[in-house]
Amino acid sequence: MTRREVGRNGQRNVRVERLRARRRLRSKGAEVIELPRNRRPVKPSHPPAISRTDPQSGTKETTRPGGTGTRRVGLVLGLFACASVLLLGRAFAINVSDGAEISEFMVDHTPLSGVEVTRGDILSANGRTLATSVQASRIVATPYEVEDPRKSAGELAGIISDETGQTADEIEALLSADSEGGEPDDYSPVATVAPESAEKISALGLRGIYLETTTERVYPDDFLASQVIGNRSAGGTFGGVEARYDAELAEGRDVTLTIDTAVQQELQSSLREAVEEFDARSAVGVVMRADDGALVALANSPAYNNNRFSDATPEQQRNRAITDPYEPGSTLKPFTFAGAIEEGIVSRDDTFVVPDSIQVGDRIIRDSVPHETEVMTPAGILADSSNVGTIEIARRLGEAGVHRYLAAFGIGEATGFELYGEDPGYLPSTGDWSGVSIGNIPIGQGLTVTPLGLTTSFTALVNGGQRVTPYVTEGEKTGREERVISERTSDIVRGMLQTTVDDGTGRLAEIPGYTVGGKTGTSQKVDPESGTYGEDYYASFIGFAPVDDPEYVTLIVVDEPQRSIWGESVAAPAFEKVMNFTLSYFNVPPDRLIVGEPEATE
Predict the structure, then answer these.
(1) Number of Cβ atoms within 10 Å of the Cβ of 439
(2) Which residues contact residue 327 at a Cβ distance below 8 angstroms, ignoring those fewer than 6 apart?
(3) Is position 376 within any domain?
(4) Looking at per-residue confidence, does 171 or 72 come out higher?
(5) Quick one: 196 and 281 in the same domain?
(6) C-beta of residue 592 within 8 angstroms of C-beta of residue 513
(7) 3-state class of 74 per DSSP?
(8) In a domain, 508, yes or no
(9) Which of 237, 256, 275 is the last residue of a domain?
(10) Weakest-pLDDT range from 42-56, 370-384, 512-526, 567-581
(11) Does residue 473 lie in a domain region?
(12) Mean pLDDT, residues 54-79 taken together
């Protein structure tokens, strides 16, 4: 006799008794009676009416069971119903092969009576369903009953492999699963499939293979906003909106996002193209509403198929826009300019003598492109992204002033974003600054931000000077918060950033018909092994439009581009595509005459 036969025959009574014991522990149980094919149980809307004639008055009265004067009628009907259930259950047990075992198995795996709440949907701002629950069937095996696991696995694989991605060997392992005691198990979930596949499996009549009615979480747009949405599957809930609003969704409540699917698709497409064109490791993008911090789009590339969540790597599953801080490089420079202007230390008409290198502590810091000593205005320094000129302005503001304004804009602290997993970034306190910190921190080195954190801080810089809390669900709107800089200072900085796009390093971000402001960034990555700067870079661009009254702020960050490292050539074109689409899509009126095609200055 084989080991499986011993497991099937020698342990059958033990397993049946175990299943019966489980049922006795329940406060309520229900015998499962198989319905004829193509039939579904119908839930009555109310008890049937009962009519009787009063012997005294001759009038006819209509009552319902449970009402006054009908207790005996209700009792009789209840006893009759119980007897019918028992008789039908007995008939089922007699007429089905191995009826006792199958009946006990079904009782053990059938949900208790009651109303089951379907998990709520996740919807986009434009009403598109991003996540929903549909009727499905769970394939369950009792390995001790499966006679030929290899053959059964092959037949199942022929039906479900395309749907679940499982191989015959993987299915066979589930059909052969052992318990902790090393014996064939009595319950092994195999897969969750659509009803159509379940019908085909049922027709196979495989011994030890059963079907349970369940619901399955599906994501109609596969890759769209997958890291924002998160995932809900048999393995549990992971990240994003699914995890943050798990309780609300479990109660059947829908959750509506601020994400617009059209803008989200454009952002994901542009990031994917940038990664492919520059053979980059990855890219992240954010589109934020300047007025209140609402996220119109947030994307990571590569994305992953939310309906194939287990196939994605941990890096793909992670929402890197909130979890992965990086050194922002030159995109941080405008904050030091804003602090100096707000304090009255620098005006837009001031001039600075700017060589191409400067001594800071024991280091020499250089501009990215060698040049003769020049006389430059603050706008010119920002347009050319001069490290030396930025350090000269930072020295006027002082270490305490630079730190104070960076902190006031939210650098180095969490934004308050509602989804789990946000990294606050890092801004060293002035007590931890070295002799070179006044040189590297104002130019975006020696501190870290997340892409969402930088976008949030930049929004306060250009929206008139007020901080916002980013949010992705409609119920979390908070609006503008404390003021960091005056509207006048914000207006001056916006003008400088427009010069950067019109005449400086950001020319490939120009959008015909619109004024655009922004800043390029190229920053070295720290080698995690040596702790020093390595050979890889982030290329980025952050900008806004229109300049006088910004509607949207957009950030593009490309990680480890290979064919170029400059933010202008790598990230600015992706910004232009996304912002151009967003402005047109939301019918933002053009605010300037169309000029000639921009040319690269690199």
Answers:
(1) 24
(2) 444, 445, 446, 447, 448, 523, 524, 525, 526, 538
(3) yes
(4) 171
(5) no
(6) yes
(7) helix
(8) yes
(9) 256
(10) 42-56
(11) yes
(12) 40
Give the residue-averaged pLDDT of 526-531: 83
The two three-digit tokens of residue 517, written as one number: 């402001």
117-138 CB burial, b ≥16 within 10 A, e <16:
eebbbbbbbeebebbbbeebbb
Quote the DSSP letter at residue 308.
G
Determine the pLDDT at residue 178.
86
SS3 state at 602 = coil
Q: Side chain identity at 573, as an amino acid letter?
A: P
Write phi, then psi, for 126 (nearest 5 degrees). -95, 20
Amino acid at 362: D
Cβ–Cβ under 8 Å, residues 382 and 333 = yes
From 578, 424, 566, select the one nearest 516 (Cα to Cα): 578
220 and 276 in a single domain? The answer is no
Distances (CA, A) of 314 to 310, 343, 358, 527: 9, 45, 43, 21
Give 213's pLDDT tier (boundaries 50, 70, 90). confident
pLDDT at 100 over 80: no
The contacts of residue 270 (CB under 8 Å, 6+ apart) are: 285, 556, 574, 577, 578
The pLDDT of residue 163 is 86
| Closest-CA residue to 545 (of 513, 507, 593, 504) | 513
Q: Is the distance from CB of 108 to CB of 210 less than 8 angstroms?
A: no
Residue 191 lies in a domain: yes
Longest CA pairwise span in the chain (Å): 118
Q: What angle do CA 146, 147, 148 make, to 5 degrees?
A: 100
Same domain, 397 and 277: yes
Quick one: 517 and 579 in the same domain? yes
Please give the single-letter amino acid code of residue 347.
Answer: S
pLDDT in tens, 107-153: 333 333 344 678 999 999 999 999 999 988 899 999 989 989 999 99
Instruction: Name the residue with tokens 């069971």.
Output: 65
Q: Are residues 151 and 226 located together in one domain of the fold? A: yes
- Phi, psi of 532, rounded to the nearest 5 degrees: -120, 170
384 and 357 within one domain: yes
Residue 560 has a pLDDT of 97
Specify the pLDDT at position 599: 53
- At residue 118's C-alpha, the angle toward residues 114 and 123, to 5°, is 160
* Cβ density class 231-258: b for 16+ within 10 Å, e for less: bbbeeebebbbbbbbeebbeeeeebebb
Q: What is the 3-state secondary structure (H, E, C) of 528-573?
A: CCCCCEEEEEEEEEEEEECCCCCCEEEEEEEECCCCCCCHHHHCHH
Asked if the model's pLDDT at residue 243 lies above 60, the reply is yes
Q: How does the average pLDDT of the chain come out, rounded?
A: 83
The rounded Cα 166 to chain-centroid distance in angstroms is 25
Q: If you average pLDDT over residues 431-441, what whole number do you get?
A: 95
CATH of residue 301's domain is 3.40.710.10
Q: Which amino acid is residue 29, in one-letter code?
A: G
pLDDT of 85: 41
CA distance 593 to 108: 73
**246 Cβ contact partners less than 8 Å away, ≥ 6 residues apart:** 232, 237
Contact status, residue 384 vs residue 499, Cβ threshold 8 Å:
no
Q: The domain spanning residue 202 has which CATH number? A: 3.90.1310.10
Q: Which amino acid appears at position 155 of this protein? A: E
Q: Do 168 and 212 sit in the same domain of this protein?
A: yes
Contact 584, 260 (CB under 8 A): no
Range of the domain at 195: 122-256
Q: For the chain, what is the domain count?
A: 2
Calculate Rg over the CA atoms of the chain.
Answer: 33
- How many Å apart are CA 448 and CA 426, to the nearest integer? 5
The answer on 337 and 188 residing in a single domain is no
Q: Which residues contact 232 (CB under 8 A, 6 or more apart)?
A: 119, 131, 217, 238, 242, 246, 249
